């Protein structure tokens, strides 16, 4: 699934991380999402700090629409390429900061933020997450 041409020129540790993420497919991520009940029929989900998109693509299998944002353009480009390769058409990736989300208020049913919040201005990011989340923050998974 993962084409080495997509990760050429990246540092070895980064290439290894991407290979580990996608090496076994997305089933392991999908199973974890089922265990925490982050699946829905008509849900819109934000993957805040999506990195290379492995969680976003797994979320797309179980939810109506997924937005994956990350501050690093290279990560978004790789996530987009993998999404196209897997024929996933209900996930949208874009470069954006968790501290200044480019979405209107009350738009997402769930916000998923895995292993990111400690690397950013968490107070500002949480304000933004609560702003875009329907229900005032009941459905946040970190």
From TrEMBL:
The keyword Methyltransferase applies. It comes from the Bacteria. GO terms for biological process: methylation. GO terms for molecular function: S-adenosylmethionine-dependent methyltransferase activity. Residues 46-138 form the Methyltransferase type domain. Keywords: Methyltransferase, Transferase. Pfam families: Methyltransf_11 (PF08241). Transmembrane segments: none annotated. The keyword Methyltransferase applies. InterPro entries: Diverse_substrate_MTase, Methyltransf_11, SAM-dependent_MTases_sf. Belongs to the methyltransferase superfamily. This is Class I SAM-dependent methyltransferase.
């Amino acid at each position: 699934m993962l084409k080495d041409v997509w990760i050429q020129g990246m540092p070895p540790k980064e290439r290894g991380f991407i290979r580990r993420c996608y090496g076994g497919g997305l089933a392991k991520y999908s199973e974890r999402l089922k265990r925490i009940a982050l699946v829905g029929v008509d849900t819109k989900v934000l993957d805040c700090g999506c990195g290379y998109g492995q969680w976003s693509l797994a979320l797309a299998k179980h939810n109506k629409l997924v937005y994956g944002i990350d501050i690093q353009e290279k990560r978004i480009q790789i996530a987009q390429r993998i999404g196209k390769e897997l024929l996933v058409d209900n996930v949208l990736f874009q470069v954006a900061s968790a501290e200044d989300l480019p979405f209107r208020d009350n738009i997402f049913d769930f916000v998923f933020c895995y292993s990111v919040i400690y690397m950013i201005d968490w107070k500002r990011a949480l304000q933004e997450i609560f702003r875009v989340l329907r229900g005032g923050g009941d459905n946040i998974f970190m």
